[in-house]
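User: As part of a screening pipeline, I want to sanity-check one entry by hand. Below is the sequence and the SMILES for zinc ion. Please return the complex as structure tokens so I can compare it with the automated output.
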Amino acid sequence: MSRPLVPKQKQKEIALQRIKTLFEEAENNFSKNKALSNRYVALARKIAMKVKIRIPLDLKRRFCKHCYKYLMPGVNSRVRTREGKVIISCFECKKFTRIPTIKKLTKRAFMKP
Ligand SMILES: [Zn+2]
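Assistant: Here is the complex for your manual check:
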């Protein structure tokens, strides 16, 4: 064990940055290479799990939580907002993902005593 010790918080920051970059790359490559985009999503999830961080809410909308395919609204997914939730239909596996919207989270934070 001769690896230099990186503080946990720093590790998480680096991981989050990497995850963001992976999703950017997934978006850039989607039209050319869908399989590559899916691999980036898988990689981002692996990184998140390794350092035990959550994938940011805005990025969670970008992939299907059932089949983990990268989703491009209008191409292989449809995004609808209903009752404060974002409902994403995945055309790859024909399942739905519900995600609470940022608006609702803000409201909850606002209502905190
Ligand atoms: Zn799916």
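Points to compare against the pipeline: The first strand starts at residue 77 and ends at 82. The chain has one domain: 8-111.
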